[in-house]
């Protein structure tokens, strides 16, 4: 466990950071992305030009970009410090974890029935779907929930009961059921009818599993049924080779870190509630990761096994952080240790952590916390 690195990045009151997505948060970048989503053939040229500008010209200077706080960074920092606190019992680790959680309480999305958090910037997804900066996601909120639950479990303090119950209301009252039959269901990505994304369904499943023992006894059987139906949807959409498309809708893709997120949510949910056939699902998923996404020569995981658009990134820290997380959860300690050493060798230099290695072999994204310093530090803290 790289304790010095963890403390350097997590024991801070200010977690504002640059981000690999910064170019698309600018006024020009947002317009180009929206234009690309509406007209991919015509929009690919300006999108490629901006991507090259960001990668080749502006990656170090970060001109026109502003650092920003992200809820997922605060939540992941808290989870990382709580893992450290379990082994060290150093009160500063628990203390800073609570500071990050208190920040989340103050910076939640408003005007919803429940407590929730989003990405923190506007995001154009398709021609007909865009999210506002304060739109909460079912893929972001679970990190805050897990961190608050873990804080109470580890410290014995009941500091976040209101927030935890608020997240329960978000998943029960704000999140929309997109599809449902007798045995399976899929929920929305945001709190309205938008789209079905497999990793978002797995996040909802895990969130309900975290909350199941906190619901009233009279509602517990219904809560367990909801978890199993969400699980069944994920299981039903696992392909014969063990993979999952990012979404069963539209022009989709298969990448490493979203595949790993599905696997980690399945593992963690399965530790709280029995899920029929989970071992077979996990075995097939693990096998696919190793066969389709692992570069044995570099001992790193690749970005995509099936891409839906070109890109400049060869290796991404986010992919390898989530793969490390899955390896630890699966109990493959030898592989996890080797992967950790490879990540440190490829992505860390002079106490800086880089988030991407591009197709030219150049390290990019120095100390960008959301993507993906914090996911790596969290995974490393579980070793």
Provide structural commentary:
- Helix content is 55%, strand content 10%.
- The chain has 15 helices and 12 strands.
- The strands form 5 sheets. Strands 9, 10, 11 and 12 form a 4-stranded antiparallel sheet that branches. The chain has a two-stranded antiparallel sheet with strand order 1-2.
- Strand 10 (348-349) and strand 11 form a beta hairpin.
The total of beta strands comes to 12
User: Any idea what the radius of gyration is?
Assistant: 20 Å
Biggest sheet, open or closed, and with what strands and sense?
4 strands, antiparallel
Uncertain spans = none
Tell me the overall shape. globular
Class of secondary structure makeup? alpha+beta
Secondary-structure element order, N to C: HHHHHHEEHHEEHHEHHEEEEHHEEEH
Would you tell me the overall average pLDDT? Answer: 97
Question: What is the strand and helix layout of this fold?
Answer:
Elements: H1 3-10, H2 22-25, H3 27-38, H4 40-57, H5 71-88, H6 91-106, E1 123-126, E2 129-131, H7 141-155, H8 161-174, E3 177-180, E4 185-187, H9 198-211, H10 217-236, E5 254-255, H11 256-270, H12 278-292, E6 294-295, E7 300-301, E8 304-306, E9 313-316, H13 317-329, H14 333-347, E10 348-349, E11 352-358, E12 363-366, H15 369-381
Antiparallel strand pairs: 1-2, 3-4, 5-8, 6-7, 9-11, 10-11, 11-12
Any key phrases for this structure?
single chain; 383 residues; two-stranded antiparallel ribbon; globular
Summarize the structure.
By secondary structure, the protein is of the alpha+beta class.
């Amino acid at each position: 466990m790289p304790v010095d690195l963890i403390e350097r990045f997590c024991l801070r009151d200010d977690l504002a950071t640059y981000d690999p997505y910064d170019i698309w948060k600018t006024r020009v970048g947002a317009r180009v992305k929206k234009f690309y989503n509406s007209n991919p053939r015509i929009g690919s040229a300006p999108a490629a030009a901006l991507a090259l500008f960001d990668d080749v010209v502006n990656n170090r200077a970060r001109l026109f970009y502003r650092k920003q706080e992200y809820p997922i960074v605060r939540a992941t920092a808290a989870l990382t410090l709580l893992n450290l606190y379990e082994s060290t019992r150093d009160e500063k680790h628990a203390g800073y974890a609570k500071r990050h959680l208190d920040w989340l309480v103050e910076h939640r999305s408003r005007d919803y029935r429940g407590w929730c958090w989003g990405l923190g910037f506007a995001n154009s997804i398709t021609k007909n779907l865009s999210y506002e900066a304060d739109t909460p996601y079912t893929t972001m909120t679970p990190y805050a929930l897990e961190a608050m639950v873990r804080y109470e479990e580890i410290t014995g303090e009941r500091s976040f009961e209101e927030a935890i119950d608020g997240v329960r209301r978000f998943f029960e009252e704000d999140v929309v059921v997109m599809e449902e039959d007798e045995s399976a269901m899929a929920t929305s990505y945001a709190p309205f009818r938008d789209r079905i994304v497999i990793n978002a369904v797995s996040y909802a499943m895990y969130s309900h599993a975290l909350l199941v023992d906190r619901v009233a006894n009279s509602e517990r059987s219904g809560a367990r049924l909801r978890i199993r139906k969400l699980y069944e949807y994920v299981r039903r959409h696992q392909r014969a080779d063990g993979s999952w498309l990012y979404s069963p809708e539209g022009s989709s893709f298969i990448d490493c870190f979203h595949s790993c997120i599905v696997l980690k949510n399945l593992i963690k949910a399965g530790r709280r509630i029995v899920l029929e056939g989970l071992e077979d699902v996990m075995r097939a998923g693990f096998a696919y990761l190793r066969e389709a996404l692992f570069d044995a020569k570099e001992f790193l995981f690749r970005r995509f096994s099936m891409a839906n658009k070109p890109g400049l990134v060869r290796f991404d820290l986010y992919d390898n952080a989530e793969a490390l997380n899955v390896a630890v959860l699966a109990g493959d300690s030898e592989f996890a240790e080797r992967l950790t050493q490879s990540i440190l060798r490829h992505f860390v230099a002079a106490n800086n952590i880089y988030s991407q290695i591009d197709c030219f072999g150049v390290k990019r994204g120095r100390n960008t916390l959301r993507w993906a310093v914090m996911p790596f530090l969290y995974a490393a803290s579980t070793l």
